[in-house]
Amino acid sequence: MAPLRFSANVSWLFPELPGLPARLRAAGSSGFEAAEVAWPYAEPPEAVARAAREAGLRLVLINTPPGDREKGEMGLGAVPGRQAAFREGLEQAVLYARALGCPRIHLMAGRVPQGADRAAVRSEMETVFLENLRHAAGVLAQENLVGLLEPINTRITDPQYFLDTPQQAAAILQKVGRPNLQLQMDLFHWQIMDGNLTGNIREFLPLVGHVQVAQVPGRGEPDSPGELNFPYLFQLLENEGYKGFVGCEYRPLGDTAEGLNWLRSYWERQGRPQAGQ
What we know:
globular, 14% strand, eight-stranded parallel β-barrel, 9 helices, 277 residues, alpha/beta
């Protein structure tokens, strides 16, 4: 069994540092070999690529742009009337992915419109999402890129988000039927919405292109107090043959580097030399 590979989500980790280049440097110094960032678009792509290269990191995941944050948008993939904006954002994401050598883009579904009833608009939103995903799959295939769908929990994190369970996401992927569209498995969201992580991991892992982790319910480090037994979950992922990256998308409870003891312990068990050794 191959050991898991971890990536630093620098949109969440190292919040004590002021900018993306500094966070990438810190991730590299902490022993990470890969990083992910939600929205790198405030920096020129060449600057992000240079910072990652200098830190000894490869970028493995970015998101499509969120849309108009001031109007409450959090992705546009399934939002009626925003198809043109989604496609523009996709082109921007592809431009960055190409410059960064980043193989995966999270295609954000977005939120149920304010004031709308989820059940009443579900069919229309799914139709829009399917249309946009088919378009995205074609665009991404030309660049040899993978698009990811991530269910986000609607119980705590984002009550209006359209895509909120692995079952819903898997059904949509089946309807689209494109091999370069895969599932993004954030165990924080999956535990909150459905639990049954052993069964769901085994069922859906063949569709999974990326994993993310955080403790439940506080969204802290994997070894912080909470519901999830990460040594067991990491072993399960290894046993099931997962070969992708595991993104550290959590909220550090203190200094990020000091809170990485759980990861250093994992690396030590794998016999990996630590940073600075």
